[in-house]
Specification:
Blueprint: E1 9-10, E2 22-23, E3 38-45, E4 51-56, E5 70-74, E6 79-83, E7 90-95, E8 103-105, E9 115-119, E10 128-132, E11 138-142, E12 146-150, E13 162-168, E14 171-177, E15 183-185, E16 197-199, E17 209-213, E18 218-222, E19 228-233, E20 241-246, H1 251-254, E21 260-264, E22 273-276, E23 282-286, E24 292-299, E25 305-311, E26 314-320, E27 339-341, E28 346-350, E29 358-365, E30 386-388, E31 395-401, E32 408-415, E33 428-429, E34 439-442, H2 444-470
Parallel strand pairs: 27-34
Antiparallel strand pairs: 1-28, 2-7, 3-26, 4-5, 5-6, 6-7, 8-9, 9-10, 10-11, 12-13, 13-14, 14-15, 16-17, 17-18, 18-19, 20-21, 21-22, 22-23, 24-25, 25-26, 28-31, 29-30, 29-32, 32-33, 32-34
Length: 471
């Protein structure tokens, strides 16, 4: 029998029943504001200067020579820092001089087992792109000053190249660089100037190169032929946005959603994280951090995937803190099921929500499928439209649909941000049933037949077990 985890939303159809080169670790939070169901932990702080970029060796090397740690560039002293994902602080891995920015690991064997680092200024001893071996030894790789780096996913239309943002003074281009360090122009001048680049991972975003333009606050989509188009205007203004990344598979039943996340490093909204849908719709997802300069998603953590962010003063991990699910039951003691008769009332019990908050509730006909940003269908007539939580973030059992019920297939959704649209990763959908129905209502006579069949199968199982014990 399935047990009930208290950190969940339940829809119950029952009667009420971080040394000089060591950065210390602290788990005390500043004052970040996150969506319901997420938590933030500071992994390291006290760096000599602001961090510019963050990446993870786990994406390509796993338990290889670079381990599964995070690596971050620090602008002022030019250090590359290795940050423990487990809360053991950070140590300086190597130094490349002043102003290192982007860094990444290669997924391609032809590029070798190196960490690639972008340096956007002409200054000895290093500039352009350098690569670092697992012992921290540096090698020059590509000469023009480079601001940001990204490798495409294997097998994509972008080929096995390293892509880098090159230029300055308002004229930036993306170069495509092969494994020998030979680069060719991939794009014409990017509208709006340079910024961070990252590839999406497929699914709703497809597999494309995206670039933030710091001078305008815009984001551009760059196609395999080098053409580009405006994808979204974040509205954050000039010299505001920083790094970006995409969720890598939907942690805990899509709690992250199919989304792009962008850091805000300056301006009135500095310290925020933006969430952008595949259609380019922008919203503030989190706030209250120091300037957010880069974002990196990697597998692991309590929710299957963890967001790591580089800020003006440290490295944070953000992950789900509550697994949002629903469980359905009947009044007849059959336990959890998705099939219900017409003659019982529908109750909802909510746990682990924000305290003293009202949420919009929808009981609707089954939607196949639920898609990001779609309008929520009309409610079933007579069903409850909202519920409120108490001091502990819970709500007692309340009736949301009085019997007699209408037969058919249905979904139950909590519209967390109350915008009348379905927002995956924010709203709570019963059993995360994006395609299949959340539950069924059938006539009483048919429900009786199902009960009888269930009893027969149970008795037959007990009979066979008894016979085997007596052999």
């Amino acid at each position: 029998m399935r047990t009930i985890d208290p950190k969940k939303l339940f829809i119950l159809l029952v009667p009420i029943l971080f040394s000089a080169n060591i950065v210390t670790t602290t788990k005390a939070l500043a004052s970040p504001t996150l969506p319901f169901g997420f938590k933030a932990t500071k992994l390291a702080s006290g760096f000599p200067g602001s961090l510019a970029c963050i990446t993870s060796a786990l994406s390509v090397s796993g338990d290889g020579p670079f381990g599964d740690d995070l690596y971050a560039t620090e602008i002022t002293a030019g250090g590359i820092w290795r940050v423990s994902r487990e809360g053991a602080g950070a140590t300086q891995f190597t130094s490349v001089g002043e102003y290192p920015e982007g860094l990444t690991f290669s997924p391609f064997d032809s590029f070798g087992n190196y960490l690639y680092v972008a340096i956007p200024v002409w200054k000895e001893p290093w500039w352009g792109i350098v690569r670092v071996d697992p012992l921290g030894k540096l090698q020059g790789f590509f000469n023009p000053p480079t601001e940001s780096l990204a490798f495409p996913p294997g097998g994509s239309d972008y080929g096995e190249y390293l892509y880098g943002v090159v230029g300055g003074f308002g004229s930036y281009k993306i170069y495509r660089i092969d494994s020998t360090g030979t680069g060719t122009e991939f794009t014409d001048t990017i509208p709006g100037g340079g910024g961070s680049i990252r590839f999406s991972h497929g699914e709703d975003f497809g597999t494309y190169l995206f670039m933030t333009c710091g001078s305008t606050g815009e984001i551009y989509k760059v196609y395999p032929d080098g053409s580009c188009e405006l994808f979204a205007d974040t509205g954050m203004g000039k010299w505001s946005i920083g790094g970006l990344d995409f969720d890598v598979g939907g942690a805990w039943q899509g709690q992250w959603g199919q989304s792009m996340y962008v850091g805000v490093g300056a301006g009135p909204n500095a310290g925020s994280i933006l969430r952008i849908t595949p259609r380019g719709q922008v919203s503030v997802w989190a706030s209250g951090f120091e300037a957010v300069t880069d974002i990196c998603f990697q597998p692991g953590g309590e929710g299957g995937f963890t967001m790591y962010i580089a800020t003006g003063e440290g490295v944070w991990a953000i992950e789900p803190s509550a697994k949002c699910e629903t469980f359905l039951m009947t009044e007849k003691g059959l336990g959890m099921t998705d099939i219900f008769p017409q003659t019982i009332d529908v109750y909802i019990i909510g746990l682990s929500f924000a305290p003293w908050t009202q949420y919009d509730l929808y009981v609707v006909r089954d939607v196949d499928p639920w898609t990001d940003g779609m309008m929520i269908p009309p409610r079933i007539p007579g069903t409850k439209t909202s519920f409120s939580t108490g001091a502990d973030g819970s709500t007692p059992g309340i009736i949301v649909w009085n019997a007699p019920l209408t037969t058919g297939k249905f979904d139950i959704l909590v519209d967390v941000n109350r915008n009348g649209k379905y927002d995956p990763g924010i709203d709570v959908l019963d059993d995360n049933d994006i395609v299949t129905a959340g539950f069924f209502v059938i006539p009483e006579y048919a429900f009786g037949t199902i009960l009888a069949l269930a009893s027969c199968f149970t008795a037959f199982g007990a009979f066979r077990l008894s016979k085997r014990k007596n052999l």
